[in-house]
Amino acid sequence: MEEPYRRLMGNKSIHASKLQQHLFDQMLSQSEFCDVTLIVGSYEMKAHWCVLVSCPYFQSLYDSGLEERVSGKVNVSVGKPAALRSAINFLYDGLVEISYDGIRDLLEVADYLQICDLKKTCTEYLSSVEVTVDNSVNLCLLASLYDLDIYNRMYDYVRGHLPDIMKKDDILTLTHDSILGLLMDKTLTYVNQEDFFDFILRWVSHDVENREEYFKDMFCALDLQRISKDFLERNVESCPLLNSSEECKLHVLNIKMKQMAGLIPEENGHRDVILLAGGSGHGLYIHTFLQLFPLADMISLNNIYGYVIQENRWAELAPLPYQMKKPIITNDIQNNYMYVYDSNPGLDSCSFYLYKFHLLEKKWSSIRVLVPEACSNLSINHVLSCNGKVYIVMSAYYTKSQSHIEWQCVLLEVDEEGNESLVRCMIFQRSMKTQVHACMALNRYICIIGWKTGIIANGRSRNHSRFVYYDTVSMRRFEFSKGAGFEPLMFTMDNDLILTKPGCYRSKRFSFHHRRWFSHKELVVPLFPEEPSRIDYMYTIYNGQLFVFGGKSPTTKKPIDSALKYNFEEKQWSKLETMPQALMNSGTCIVRIPNDHVRCHINCPHCTFHSRRSQATYQIDYPEDDEDDEDYSYDGDDLPSDYWDDDDALYDNFEDMYDPYNEFWY
């Protein structure tokens, strides 16, 4: 006879729930079926071995065969009875009632008994608690003490609100090592060193007998260069704890000697900052396969990074109004303005936008620049602020008469009120091969140098330089092209204009006093110590030193994140703090702004809770084709110069360029 069909019947989950409840009821009633007794001080409670061994602590006791297994009694040496009972209840039914006031006791028992699920439940509860200045230190201590995975979040909150938290009493319970870690944290530049000093005194005074020995290490960790001279003399030097330590007194003496020697500039409430605005950075970088399409792996940026020269660190200002691949920027030192032009979109009309940022008020606005009707087919080369006005060096077809139209390099004075801007002078004729450099000198002169200027004859332009400068005071144009050159580096130093390139042992110098060019053997720039052949880098001059930032490798096309400084007196390169990210083609200028505008480190924890964008206002108009500005990955007609064939190049490679003065001054 064939065997009947067999099936597994019943409800496993209901049965398990009933069995669990049955064991739980036995534990609650302290039934004789419970085979182990837990003892905390004078408190006792019964439980089942079969339930307790679900956690490693009780499993190891049971497996060891020690007295606890034989006697059926286990002494728990930590925790309070209520916390122990909650923990054992959790082992039975997986539920626990948690309160903020009692969670420390519960964590203590859970950690000691190695009840991982209970610790996880406590962590979930703490994650739901609103973190404030009043409870953040306690939450951070709990997370650190019991190794909870919320520690980093709590610690970042403490670091991001440290000035307010240092006024609370909870922080006085932190250990010496924890305080020392905060003092040595380079990202906490937004915290005044004066506040740190006052806190150290308060922390030591909380328990002088046991903490006085730590004062020396903590005081020597302070950056006294960031403490004002007045506070140093009035508060620091008069401190009894300092006078009892020779090392502390020596720490103060070293700073005072540097101040007397002029190595530390007197605090004036401002910082000189080199700004890098926008540009291109890393996208999805695929070197081998996409090397022929160099812009496919880069993205446009709207960041404004600031290199704080006196402190060799990076900060960040409120970002640009939108992403700009090749912004042109300049600054008005007198009125604390920065002007930005987005050179990437093509101009199809006789008007365009400049963006204006007030460095003190952190306010963005836009200026609609109207170009005279005589100018058409515009191409903006440079934007310069000089003598309180904004000038634009641009290429345009200039209509002198109905029958006479020339392609000229033109100097335009911007009317910020929205009226038609003025053409101040014609600089020189240009062609498809013309290259233009421009800079400002002595806050008076607009200096422009052109290469391959003039009309193309027989398919070739004239390979010589034209040097023109415009005096914004007398409003006159001057030309001194004889002896001029054309090089990648153009800047002013000691009231003269300098032309040079890395690796060249001579330079060209134009003296505004003598009004002529000189060959200069002393002022040279050696090749860069890192990526010496880098291109598309940013540079500027500050106090007789050349600062170079980023760029890209000509072979791999990969953006670079290194920053360098060349000291002309010492004739050597030095490496600066690494840039926040690899950049190329960013706009560059030097500004002087209040300390509190750049007090935050580039990785400042305070800025995590107070975004930089929220610190600025944006009252601007955008170009009509703004929807295209968000993606500059590749637009078809803006490839780097090294990818053009020399015969149809708009821009030639500098290394291949013929220089008629090569034998004379190289």
TrEMBL record:
Keyword Repeat: yes
PROSITE patterns assigned: BTB
Residues covered by the BTB domain: 34-100
Family annotation (SMART domains): BACK (SM00875), BTB (SM00225)
Keywords, sorted A to Z: Kelch repeat, Repeat
Organism: Sinanodonta woodiana (Chinese pond mussel)
Organism domain of life: Eukaryota
Annotated protein name in UniProt: BTB domain-containing protein
UniProt-listed InterPro entries: BACK, BTB/POZ_dom, Gal_Oxase/kelch_b-propeller, Kelch-typ_b-propeller, Kelch_1, SKP1/BTB/POZ_sf
